[in-house]
Amino acid sequence: MPxxxxxxxxxxxxxxxxxxPLEEFTKARNDLASRLRKAHQADAAAEVRGLRKPSLxxxxxxxxxxxxxxxxxxxxAAAEHLRDVQQRALAGDVQPTEVxxxxxxxxxxxxxxxxxxxxxxxARATTALLDRxxxxxxxxxxxxxxxxxxxxxxxxxxxxxxGFGPLxxxxxxxxxxxxxxxxRERVGELRTAAAQLADDAREAEHAAAExxxxxxxxxxxxxxxxxxxxxxxxxxxxxxxxxxxxx
Length: 247
Description:
The protein has 9 helices and no strands.
């Protein structure tokens, strides 16, 4: 390794700093800040001293940019293409197949880098870490301001899931006449359903009235049968009494 320059080339040394193994970051950062201070670059020294040690997720994203530059470049290109397709989709200027193809390309690029991360990180490549890494890769690649940092392997922060990002299939915005037609169809469906329910209610009322009439008829028949039974019992009692007197 060549000796360190007394007056550091800051951009090159920052590239080297973020390319180091994670456990070497803090010492190398402090050494760089010290050399900057000795070179009378106090502002740069203070800025470097304030750099936070990357999380394992951020370090993994930066590491992939150094060891898998072609795959990282493919992700950035796929995300840029997807961003363009999404913008044109909002204006109704693309076919659904183009959106799907661009989304698949971006997703495949992320998957390829995650597979590489499993090889590079071994046991440290937990499911949770890979999920966070995927979000960071997607968030950085879809953001024009961060994509160049991802390519250079100099990300400093993890990124969460993007709200309007590569994983969301963008649909063509419905036009006003389409919305009006859908509303008319919905009103027609509701009118038909309401008419059917009204018919069902009338039929139920008729059935209830008919049941009440039948119940009244059955009550009269039951009362007449009870009267006949009572009369028969009275006649039976009288006949039994008459039979007893004749013995």
